[in-house]
Amino acid sequence: MKNRPSGFGIEKLPQLVRGEGSCLFDAEGKRYLDGSGGPAVFCLGHAHPEVNAALAHQFEQIAYAYRYLFTSSALEKLTATILEACGGGFKDIVYCGSGSEAVEGALKIALQFFAARGQMEKRRFIARRRSWHGNTLGALSISDFAQRRRAFEGSLLDVTFVSAANSYRRPDGVSGENLAAALAAELEQAIVNLGPHNVAAFIFEPIVGAAGGVVPAPAGYAQAIQSVCRRYEVLLIADEVMCGSGRSGTWRALEHDGIVPDIMCIAKGLAGGYIPLGATLVTPQVAAPISSEHGAYMTGHTFTGHTAACAAGLAVQHIVRRDALVESQAIASKNDDTSQIGQQNRQIG
To answer: Where are the beta strands (DSSP E) in 114-212?
Structure first.
C-alpha cells in the first residue's frame, strides 16, 4: 500500500512541513501554490496569526468539553455569529466535524421532524444527478457518483434522482429560459410518483462544487423548487458545505435567491481548515415539533461542539466580518463579470 499511487497518480506524496498564506512547503524545501485551498477550506490562508493565537489561547484554557454536559463561550459566541450572518432565518445549530457529518445530520433531522409529527411513512429522499454530498452512508446515498458508490451498493438508501440544474447541459428539448420551470416540474413529478406522503426531503447544492465544477442553478430555480416542496410538505435541504460560509459573495449562497431552506449544511470555510468543523442549521418551523415531542435532536457525536474547533471558527468568522471579506469578494466578482461582459461585447462588435 505504501508504494501504491495516490488518486492523482503520484507515486510518493510530498511531506508538508509548513504553510504560509497561500503557499505550502514540503520537507525538501519545495514551495506549492495551494490554489484549491485545501480543497476549498483555507479561506484565510495558512498560519493566520490571529487564528493561531485564538487557538493557542483556547488550548491554554481547555481544549474540549463534552457538549451534552457543558457549554462554552466559544460555542455560544460562534452560534450567535452564525445565526446573525444567516440573517435570522434559523434557530438551532448542531455542530459536527465535517461536511459529510453535517449532511448526515440534516437527513436525520428531516426524518426526526416527521417522526415527531407522527408521519413515520415520510422516509424517502430526492437528490440531483451529478451531485456530491459526502462519504457517510447516508450522504453517499444521495450523491450521484457511480464509482464512489459501487463498493457500497446494497447498503445505501433508496434515493430518487432528478436532473442536474446545469444551464450548459440542459435536459433534451428544454430551452434555457424554461429550464428552471422544467426542473421544478420534474421534481414535482418525482414527488407525485413516490407519493408525497412518502417523501421527507429534497437536497441540493445551490452552487455545485467539485461534482460539477462550480455550477450555479438557473435564475428562479431555488424559488421554484421551494414552492414545489412546500406544496407537498417536503423539506428543502441546502448543502452549502462548499459554496456557503461567504464563498459565493453572500454568507449564505441562497441569499442570492432570496430564500431560506428548512435545513442547511455548512463546513469547509466555517473554521477555515484550522480544525475540522461543520454544522447543520435548522429553522424554527422544523425545530418546534422536535423540541416539543423529543426534547432534543437525535444526532450528534462525541466531539459535537468541540471547544477548540468552535474557537477556530469564531476567530475565522470574526476576521471575515471585520475585514469585510465577503463584501470585498462580491465587489471583485461583480467587477470581473462586468469586465467579461465588456470584453465579450468588444469581441462581438
So the answer is: 124-128, 159-162, 199-204, 207-208
CA distances from 295 to 18, 67, 98, 288 (A): 45, 16, 25, 10
What is the domain range of residue 203? 49-326
Question: Measured between alpha carbons, how far is 222 from 243 in angstroms, rounded to an integer?
Answer: 15
Contacts for 170-176: CB closer than 8 Å, 24+ residues apart: 176/218
* Number of domains comprising the chain: 2
Residue 343 resides in a domain: no
Burial of 316 (0-12, 13-18, 19+ CB in 10 A): buried
**Do residues 264 and 271 lie in contact, with contact meaning Cβ atoms separated by under 8 Å?**
no
Dump pLDDT digits (tens) for 57-110: 999 999 999 999 999 999 999 999 999 999 999 999 999 999 999 999 999 999
Give dist(CA 105, CA 298) in Å, integer: 9
State the Cα–Cα distance between residues 61 and 46, nearest whole angstrom. Answer: 23
Q: Which three cell numbers stand for residue 142?
A: 444521495
CB 291 within 8 A of CB 297: no
Which residue is associated with the grid cell 407519493? 195
Q: Based on the domain organization, do 31 and 55 belong to the same domain?
A: no
Secondary structure letter of residue 248 according to DSSP:
T
Do 132 and 93 lie in one domain? The reply is yes
Closest CA to 240 of 103, 77, 115, 72: 103
Q: Which of 184, 124, 195, 204 is nearest to 160 (CA)?
A: 124
Q: Which residues contact 260 (CB under 8 A, 6 or more apart)?
A: 86, 87, 89, 90, 252, 254, 283
User: DSSP string covering 79-108, please?
Assistant: HHHHHHHTTS---EEEEESSHHHHHHHHHH
| Residue-wise pLDDT tens digits, 254-306 | 999 999 999 999 999 999 999 999 999 999 999 999 999 999 999 999 999 99
The length of the chain is 349
List of E strands, the chain: 16-20, 23-26, 31-33, 92-96, 124-128, 159-162, 199-204, 207-208, 215-216, 235-239, 263-266, 278-282
